[in-house]
Amino acid sequence: MKIALLGNPGAGKSLIFNQLTGLGVEVNRYPGSSVCLECGNVCYKKEKIEIVDLPGIYSLDGNSEEEILVRKFLESGEADIIVAVLDSTKLERNLYLFSQVAEFSPRIIVVVNMIDEAERQGLIIDVDTLSGRLGVPVLLTAASEGREIDRILPLALGSGRVVSIQVPYDHHIEAALKSLEKTLGTPRYKNLLALQGTGEDPMLLDAAAAIAHEIELRHRMSVRQIIATNRHNFARNIAAAAVRQGDQKKTYDLDSLLTRVFPGVPILIAILFFLLLFVFVTGSWMQELIVQVFTTYVILPFGTMDLPPLVERIGFSVLVALEAGLGIAFPFIFTFYLGLSLLEDTGYLTRAAFLADRAMHRLGLHGEAIIPMVIGFGCTVPAVMSLRILKTRREQTIAAFLISMVPCSARTVVIAGIVAAFVGIAWAFSIYLIVFVLIILTAVLLSRITPGEQFGMIVEMSVLRRPQVRLVLAKSWLRIKEFLFIAMPLLIITSIALGLFQYFGLTDLFQQMVAPVTVTLLGLPGYASTALLFGVFRKELAFETLAVLAGTANLGSVMTAAELYTFAIVSVLFVPCISTIAVLYRQLGARITALISIYTVFLGLFVGAIINILMK
Amino acid sequence: MQPSLREDYLEAIQHFTILNGHSPRPHDLAVVFGKPESEIQSDLGNLRASGDITIAGDTSVNLTKTGRSVGECVMKKHETLQFFLSEILGMDSSTASSEACTLEHSVSDETVDRLGNYLKKTRPSGNISADGTKPAVYGYTGVICDESCTPRSLLDFNEGDELVVRCILGQSCAKRLLDLGVVPGEKVKIRRKHGKDALVLQVKGCDVALSPEIAAAVSVERFL
């Protein structure tokens, strides 16, 4: 038995999903798509029921990955019952999607969620009218209070009904649908999509395009507009019959503060600043703790086990990788996601996107890109993972380049540990300045040369509400799990490779090989190249390795200020770390990942060389 | 019952059904015609007797097959004539519409067909073809705008203004806007606007933030 939750973004699907399944959730990638599906199993009356949380969408006609996925899912008939989750405060708009889902005629029940919010707004929803008009059972729920959630499964299993309503389209569209059905034998929903230019069957598309052209001539309106208008009218009629506006409690509109330039922008900056501060302070504290515990109780005992050298080397590499992974996963990624989920669930994030739109425009991006960029200051890995929220590949690509350059907390360790400690605080800030200038230059350059269409921001502002601790935790946990499963294996493999590299004495060979670059070009001691190489592994390792190789933690005594400064700036710019490369590869594919890596290597070496020349 | 009155009724019912997605009730028609409901009721009785319409239990008025074909035919005549009068002869659209209302009853089918074909040839075809070189611009009243008559976009209005969507220019961003309810004829309100930057639009009870380039593509007029 399989049940799928379907609905608009922000209708409360995830909350319902979490309450139905608990935390035992798996994340599955749908074949041929990078969108993740969350699945969970529950036992009900001794039957195993799989629940799938489909991504939130506004429409089934579009060509975004989420929409294609949901369409395919509906077409395949994989789910036995669809639970359509509608937001009771925006019933009309939500019914628009429902009218599209109905075209696939699945077995369905309707859950009208956030009824608590509707009550606050004085909206009264008549379940019987709604259920009568839609021809399927309707349940009013308030997921945030857990109200009526336990009735969803019994209702879905007991009285899910094949939905039979049809949107009455304009008679030209209806005629076109009938004629396509007659001539090609294709189902109604496919014909509707084909009229809007979506589909895979070339014959159907051709036939539909010809008719669509005819209709557009007649109506002087695109077929998409006609169909959308018909559906909206249909939804409006149902909503008008089922929803009554009662007394409204006057509430204070926080948006009069949050979305104005003043005090909105200062609030935004303050929130982002405290988010970073929170992640950085608690993150580095936790990281220190984890690394310390891991070193004392795992790595050191392992060293005393007297294993054969090769085995020891491999084992050691695996442990170091685990340490590195856990060292960033929990402290930085988890805390960041906690903060982010909190902002997301309160609905503030959409306000931030709105306010940041102008600044982001300058970088060839849109308001929504502020989220990955800010996350980048904490850790590049979750930042890359959050690129998904950007709509076009063009924006994802530009943002990926920029994020890879944003100084993450690990790079801050390098800057602080090397430059601030041995050269001077002002010099440390100058590195930030150089990096920011480079980011802006890169953005300007990329926004000119990156192919693809510019797509502006269209973001629905989510309603401001109190976040649910449970959901925030669940979300963060889900994301951290994603990281652990994707990045960890790669981290371990690379670590083993690097360990073997060292074991067979290739590090010395490598040092000699790249000596012209490190020694001549950058003016650094030969062993610095190995330190840089380790920096690829985990950025702050560059600093630690340098100290080990130099034989002293007092780096100022063995390297000149210029050398230290050059080393720091190169390792900050130089190639994103291995975990970043792993998620970049997953998110954007091999080509972009390679481009980013090569670009940052050259940028690092180039800037390093210039500084070397200037400082001599 | 006069033939022209019958045609007016059938046309109005058909038009209402297409526009709203459901059949009109007598009071809807009373609003359309500006007549008292009692008079409408008696006219509808005559129409039912002549087999043009059926009246359902909830008083909604549906066209029969013959009724629909007459209604469609008159509607088509009306559209063609109005288009000819306003777009080719340059009359203002309300006069064109009322003139078309009179002419539609006496004009023959052939004249309208030929006029329609003539208009198709003279119409600026680049606006309609989906070749992507010129953006298709459609007004909700059915008037095709060309580049010369630039409609006012969302960017030309201020915070707090109540507006009606006329059309959406360009195709790429149109889809998501349509899904969110920004469709021709929809009433919207600008909730927040910072100069020429991003704005927040209230549509169907939801707030939607739009980039300026998207807002520039939404052609609107003031809600009166």
Structure description:
Chain A has 27 helices and 11 strands. Chain A is an alpha/beta fold. In chain A, helix 3 links the parallel strand 5 and strand 6 (107-113). In chain A, 66% of the residues lie in helices and 9% in strands. In chain A, the strands form 2 sheets. In chain A, strands 1, 2, 3, 4, 5, 6, 8 and 9 form an 8-stranded mixed sheet that branches. Chain A has 3 domains: 2-162, Rossmann fold; 261-417 and 452-487, no CATH class; 491-615, no CATH class. By secondary structure, chain B is an alpha+beta fold. Chain B folds into 2 domains: 1-123, Arc Repressor Mutant, subunit A, CATH 1.10.10; 154-222, Ferrous iron transport protein A (FeoA) (SH3 type barrels, Roll), CATH 2.30.30.90. In chain B, 44% of the residues lie in helices and 16% in strands. Chain B has helices at residues 3-20, 26-33, 37-49, 65-88, 93-103, 109-122, 174-179, 212-215, and strands spanning 53-55, 61-63, 162-168, 187-193, 199-203, 206-210, 218-222. A 5-stranded antiparallel sheet of chain B has the order 6-5-4-3-7. A two-stranded antiparallel sheet of chain B has the order 1-2. In chain B, strand 1 (53-55) and strand 2 (61-63) form a beta hairpin. Chain B starts with a helix and ends with a strand. Residues 124-149 of chain B have low confidence and may be disordered. The interface between A and B is large, with 50 and 51 residues. Strand 11 of chain A pairs antiparallel with strand 6 (206-210) of chain B.
